[in-house]
Amino acid sequence: MNIARLGKSLLAILVLLHELLSFINVAYAEPIKVGMTLPLSGKLGGYGSAFRNGVELFQEENAESQKQVTFIFDDSQYDGTKVASAVRKLAAVDKVDLLYVWGVTPSQVAAPIAQQSGVPLLAMTTDPVSKDRPKVASLQLTLETLQSAISHFVSDHNFKTTGIIVSDFGATTRLSEMLKPHMPGLAYYEVVPTDSLDFRTLATRVRSKPVDAIILMVLPEQTLPLARQLAAQKVRAHVIGGDMLADEHLREELTAFMGEASYVYGEVDADFRKRYQARFGDTSHVYEAAAGYSAAFMVAEVARRSLSSKHAEILPLLVAQQYQTPIGEILFQSSADRGIAAMLKARVYFEKQSKLSPIQ
């Protein structure tokens, strides 16, 4: 028999055996268990619900992934105490292989717990919570990125005078402070309590200082009362908001009072936006939905490529790959300033007469 032909035949058999064993290992390996702590109710419930919708959409579109990955959702209500309790339960009781949290406060609470428990954590935040924590990786839409997007938008649209109104809440006050030196003709800088709904005095005060654009970053439940009271005082300007305007119903009502509005948000693939709208009826908080879809996709990719049922090394596997996702390219890198992190992109969307179009 021809030795070369025999060698090729044996090689082909070995390749087939390897693929068969790989299939068997994947088929019988236990699924990766992911514990997700999200605000599914409360003031920020819309964000967490959209994130969960994104995970579910991925599972619907990729049915085989349900055999490879199991998701356990826990409602944090964006409360630090509840976050701590949920993360400890997911790690100790549910024995998840990977923790995932969304938001600045939840990430700050969860990161040290994850590092101490040894259960790896993927956090979506603006802050470098993964710094000096090898068990933590982060997806960061940084305040610097958001500030740059807003500043360029203001410059590109030639706004000559501006005002800033923000709630004293989390990262919003830090972002507004970063914006101050970049805002042309800054006429006022107002910080309002998070529990306030009476803005009549503020509206009267800013009426005497007309501006081209108002940076408006308050809580969702404060947005319409503030816009209504500003409009009652004949205050009208282009509104540049934060992610509270990611609620399309809120945007529509806001534009009825203020005329035009734009908001800074993460990038979302246009095709995903269409699919999400077709499935869920609107695009409110679509960036969170795209982030949920992306998180599910990344873990499913790790499960698909790993032949082991032991997931102690899931974080190194997760961050070693590069992903093309609905929120753009995700590439994790390690640095002294941020630890293991992937930087995300932001853009400003412009809303006029209830028509949403991205501004490049």
SSE arrangement:
Blueprint: H1 3-28, E1 32-38, H2 45-61, E2 69-75, H3 80-92, E3 98-102, H4 104-117, E4 121-125, E5 136-140, H5 143-156, E6 162-167, H6 170-179, E7 186-192, H7 200-207, E8 213-217, H8 220-232, E9 238-241, H9 248-258, E10 260-266, H10 270-280, H11 286-305, H12 314-319, E11 322-325, E12 328-331, E13 333-335, E14 339-343, E15 346-352, E16 355-359
Parallel strand pairs: 1-2, 1-3, 3-4, 4-5, 5-14, 6-7, 6-8, 8-9, 9-10
Antiparallel strand pairs: 10-15, 11-12, 13-14, 15-16
Helix pairs in contact: 2-11, 3-4, 5-6, 7-8, 8-9
Compose a concise summary of this entry.
With about 350 residues, this protein is an alpha/beta fold. Helix content is about 45%, strand content about 25%.
Task: Give a written overview of the molecule.
This protein is of the alpha/beta class and 360 residues long. The chain has twelve helices and 16 strands. The chain has helices spanning 3-28, 45-61, 80-92, 104-117, 143-156, 170-179, 200-207, 220-232, 248-258, 270-280, 286-305, 314-319, and strands at residues 32-38, 69-75, 98-102, 121-125, 136-140, 162-167, 186-192, 213-217, 238-241, 260-266, 322-325, 328-331, 333-335, 339-343, 346-352, 355-359. Strand 8 (213-217), helix 8 and strand 9 form a beta-alpha-beta unit. The model is unreliable at 20-28 and 353-360 (pLDDT under 50).
